[in-house]
Amino acid sequence: MSVGEWCNREVIVIKPDESPREAVWLMRKYHVGDLVVVKEDPDGRRPIGMITDRDIVIELMAENVEPEKVTVGDIMSRDLLVLHEEEDLVDASNRMSEQGVRRAPVVNQRNVLVGLLAVDDILEVLAEQVSDLVRIVRKEQLRERRLRP
C-alpha cells in the first residue's frame, strides 16, 4: 500500500505571505485544523511549511502578538516531514512516529503537493485490515462447522 492510495487529495493551502487571520478564516471555512504552506512555482505548489490552529494560539494569542504584525511564514512550522506518494504506508507511518507528527504533506516525483496524510488516514487503513481479519476468522469458523459437524 502506498501513501498516495490513502492520502487526502483535497488539501487546503496558504501562502507564507498571508495573514494569520486569513489562515484562521480558511480553517473555519473548510473545518480543518491545519494548512499546508506552499510556494508557487511553474511546476505547481511546493510545501514549505505547516500552520495549525495550535500554532496560532501558542505563537500569537498566548504571546499577545497582534496578528496584523506577522505573516503565516513567521509562525509556520518549518521542520517539515514530506512524504512521497509512492512511499510505502508502513514506512511513512514509522517516519511520522519517529518525528512525532500527525500530518504530513504528500508530494509527487517532481516534489509538487498532491495530498496530505494524517494519522486518521492510517487508522482507517488499519481498521479495514482488522475487519478483514475478523471476517477471515468468522469464515474459518463457519467452514469448520460445515466440514466437521
UniProtKB/TrEMBL annotation:
Record PROSITE patterns: CBS (PS51371)
Alphabetic keyword roster: CBS domain
Protein's name in the database: CBS domain-containing protein
Organism per entry: Thiohalomonas denitrificans
Higher taxonomy: Bacteria, Pseudomonadati, Pseudomonadota, Gammaproteobacteria, Thiohalomonadales
CDD domains referenced in this protein's UniProt entry, alphabetically: CBS_pair_bact_arch
Domain CBS: 7-68, 76-133
Pfam families with a match to the protein in the record: CBS
